[in-house]
Amino acid sequence: MNTLEPRYRIPSRQHFSQMVMPKLYQEQKLLFGSDITEHKLIVDVTTRWNSSLDMLERYLDLQPAVAAALLSPEVRHNTHEIDTLDNLDIRDPEDIMKLLKPLKTVTTVLSDEQNPTVSLIVPLKHTIEQSMLPVEEDSTTVSMMKKAIFNNL
User: Fold this and answer.
1) Of 27, 39, 114, 137, which residue has the fewest beta carbons closer than 10 angstroms?
2) What is the residue extent of each domain of the chain?
3) What pLDDT band is residue 1 in, cutting at 50, 70 and 90?
């Protein structure tokens, strides 16, 4: 064996997905009931403004099933590089969702209007600015995101 070759073969993303998705569906049925609709995780798309919020919402909805699937022996047996989830993996998405919801609301309001008028811009901008003000409870991640969003306004 060449000393530069890795000791373990890390599965490709597609192979890993094919391996984990059936387990994720199985865990959803066990945790949420057999009559639920199976959901995939959503991946955000840079060209879709609200896809990051959609991704976080789905992750939090499925978080118990995701954790159970990643901890299952079937998944762990086939790979050696799975990190476990911790409290920050839940708290950060919850906080970021709260941060992104006003942006989705503004996007939805402007998208729903047949003929958006300038009179909507000022109140909607004010809504965003108010939601981006620092709060003592903000995590470092949320503080940095608020600052970046506010500066880009």
Assistant:
1) 114
2) 11-85, 87-153
3) very low
